[in-house]
Amino acid sequence: MLTINYFASLREELGSGGETLVLPEQVTDVARLVDHLVQTRGEVWSVLQDSSRVLIAVDQVIVDRSHRLQGSEEVAFFPPMTGG
Question: CATH number, domain at 38?
Fold first, then answer.
């Protein structure tokens, strides 16, 4: 079971703080997970496809979209942070 968390403005935009999901067989990496979420949830979820607005971490390590998934990880989507 995959645990997915949405943080900060994404939580508000998507109307969800998180969920659990059985990883569909065709979802083998982060990019395909994003595509799956957009296809099954609707157009508002396409924000997850914008890599300039969304960072992704798997098991608390930032990864690129080609990162392979096993199905039991924690995936987090969050906007880039700025400091000052």
Answer: 3.10.20.30
